[in-house]
Amino acid sequence: MLDRRVNAAVLLACMVSSATAFVPSASNHPVRRQQQQEHGVRSTTTIFAPLQAASIETPPSPLTAWGDRISDIRKLQQEVKKQIIPEFGIELSAADVGIASDDTQAQLKYFQENAMEIKQKMQDHGAVVLRGFDLMKTQEGFQEFYNALGMKVCQDPLQSVSARPTADGKKDSPVYEAVNKESRKNFFIGMHNEFVGTRAPRAAAFVCFKAADTGGEFLIADGRRMFRDLDPDLVEELYQRNIRYSVMELPFFGWIDNFPEPIQGPIMAGIKGLVTAAINAKVDFDVEMLWGESGYDNTKMLQARAPKQPPIVVHPVTGEPTWFCNVHSHSSKLRKDRESIYGAERFEDGASQINKSDMFFGDDGNLSDEQLQHMDEVTMKNVRFVKMTEGDVVLLDNYKCMHGRNVFDGTRKHAVAWFEGWEGEEEMKKQNAKVEALAA
């Protein structure tokens, strides 16, 4: 029994160490536990070099801009149903603007001279799909492209997670791989906005350096239309109760069942305390550890749950209500349902086993199968499959546009850059404020 307890203690120490390797590090964040309801995007100055893909010091992803609390969510949804929402995800090609696909200098000049117009299109339409620009076929050209637009690059919100490699393999590169692993090819990445805890980039640019042989489409969906189309009763319940994610599972505690039942409780309490302290020392938001059983093999596990948050936010620039909820990607039930179509997930390392997620009401209540099914149906109704070829870029507003990825075969190399904002964003806010004042 003594040897067993020693082995258990060693195993626990290893798991605590492993667990903290897969959560965002506080070393990049000088202020711990920023208030969730903080409004506005954190302002960080970035060097703008439109003609160079120069290496710069990349700031952290900004704090999530939740916006003001909506007093009557049902009434607001009814108002949105009566509005005409702009076309989503418009396309812009080199041919459309009279530039040859191989004239990269003319393309760079076009992006410099039309930067505000393109960013306004992103705001109005949620996303812009750019095609036929050879400039973005290389990482250097891709960086020249977004610098020319005046996009302010930031770190990936999962900066400290080793599972997110950079596209060129360089540690400080601002361009990250976009889930190209062959081991993940049959994993359908559900629709989501990019955010971790209290941090979310304002925008992103996804680029294709090599398309998969088959499949691998980049998926986008309009958060405004999601909010409009969901069942009003469900919208109100979700908004009033808030939502909460489990962000990590530690499914390694089946060995506790080998101990006599009277001492299992104290052991579990001690483990929970140790793991909670270790993880909360590493992240800039509060994480609560709860005991449960793994949905895959019923093994005793600890589940890390993030603080509750609203599923609908007020857009930080336009003030529009938009669906900002990752149930489609995070729900364990919806992932299991997709496994029946695409095959089971392939867990080839510890990170894959730990990085499991699920979603609950903010009071830890479970969503019903019917509610999850409805959200899945509304999501897929609004999903657009974008087949990208080399050099294609999707520039998107992370608050208005959800993204995902289809299953694929063959070698796929897509990448992404995240942005804390862009030059001219404050001017856009002022213009929207003037329009609202005139309409009032």
From TrEMBL:
The keyword Zinc-finger does not apply. Residues 1-21 form the signal peptide. GO terms for molecular function: dioxygenase activity. It comes from the Eukaryota. Keywords: Dioxygenase, Oxidoreductase, Signal. Residues 112-415 form the TauD/TfdA-like domain. This is Taurine catabolism dioxygenase TauD/TfdA family protein. It comes from Nitzschia inconspicua. The lineage of its organism: Eukaryota, Sar, Stramenopiles, Ochrophyta, Bacillariophyta.
